[in-house]
From TrEMBL:
It comes from Streptantibioticus ferralitis. Keywords: Hydrolase, Protease, Thiol protease. Residues 199-328 form the NlpC/P60 domain. Belongs to the peptidase C40 family. This is NlpC/P60 family protein.
């Protein structure tokens, strides 16, 4: 029941999003959205092609030193968002990984088993991991932390350590300057909390769930400690977020049916970011799907088989019976 049963459901408009999730793997371009990211920066609405949006958000949440605007600006500089870009020296793909470097960072992030620098999803996530590794290596270097990360990506972290900052290479200095300037068009200011306010507990829930944007939906996946089997289902994502936000004090069952009767029921017009919305998707009384409200009419969810952890409009579930539950 709950996450195991109901998260395989494709909601009203969900057929479109099932196809959309697959099309993202084939690099369609489009609009964008906005979401809080790691690194203290938000991502400006419409600034990133839709095909890559969830991966940019997820890569930007790999560690506190990295942000989605940083990832987006790097991609623009590296490849101009061209997933098939190749440089004269042999760098490949949207993130311009060299063949010798790629095996250290490339993983099957999109679940397609096509682990390649020419696979945008895997390449963007690899960029986030590599940026985070560089950030750790150069953490003790003085100066601007973002500049040092970028210099490490371009010239190698060893060069940053050798010169105790951005090395005196014209290419690297130009690379850093260009990306730091480009970041501004991808940035959006963050409020003191999620869109529409909310408690610190709700903020912590959202941060925990959004850490896994882009992770595959896995039937029965998810535990208090994180994904299982490589991903989450709907209730697995929610129970993980609530457990993390509560510091391990609230351990929900892996069932949206049970979640529909737990916590505090909240009137719809008093819903705040971090509240769980449990939805009857198949028949009366069958609360087979659960999502987390993040504010501004948006949710974060693990929707159904073939999709990924994503943000989406709550309006996808208009017309379905819903109950709002608050766990913290």
């Amino acid at each position: 029941m709950g996450g195991v049963k109901g998260c395989g459901f494709i909601a009203a408009g969900g057929v479109f999003f099932f196809i959309f999730s697959l099309l993202m793997l084939f690099m369609m371009a489009g609009g964008g959205g906005s979401s809080a990211t790691a690194g203290g920066l938000g991502l400006a609405a419409g600034s990133v092609p839709t095909a890559y949006l969830q991966w940019v958000k997820a890569a930007g949440a790999e560690c506190p030193a990295v942000s989605a605007p940083l990832i987006a600006a790097q991609i623009e500089q590296e490849s101009g968002w061209n997933p098939n870009a190749r440089s004269p020296v042999g760098a490949e793909g949207i993130a311009q990984f060299m063949p010798g470097t790629w095996p250290n960072w490339g993983r099957d992030d999109d679940g397609t088993h096509n682990v390649s620098p020419l696979n945008p999803a895997d390449a963007i996530m690899a960029m986030g991991r590599y940026d985070c590794a560089i950030a750790k290596q150069v953490a003790g270097v003085p100066g601007d932390a973002v500049a040092n990360i970028l210099a490490g990506y371009n010239a190698g972290p060893g060069a940053v350590l050798q010169y105790n900052g951005v090395p005196p290479y014209a290419e690297t200095q130009g690379y850093v300057t260009s990306i730091e300037a480009a970041m501004k068009k991808y940035e959006a200011p963050l409020s003191s909390g999620p869109v529409g306010g909310g408690s610190a507990f709700g903020q912590a829930e959202i941060a925990a769930a959004e850490k896994y944007l882009g992770l595959p939906y896995v039937w029965g996946g998810g535990a208090p400690s994180g994904p299982t089997g490589g991903g989450f289902d709907c209730s697995g994502l929610v129970l993980y977020a609530v457990y993390q936000a509560s510091g391990g004090k609230i351990d929900l069952p892996h069932s949206s049916e049970d979640m529909a009767t737990m916590g505090t029921e909240i009137p719809r017009d008093q819903m705040q970011p971090g509240d769980a919305v449990v939805i009857q998707t198949e028949q009366p009384g069958d609360y087979s799907h659960v999502v987390l409200y993040i504010g501004g009419g948006q949710i974060v969810e693990a929707p159904h088989t073939g999709a990924f952890v994503r943000t989406a409009p709550l309006s996808e579930y208009n017309g379905m019976v819903q109950t709002v539950r608050r766990f913290g």
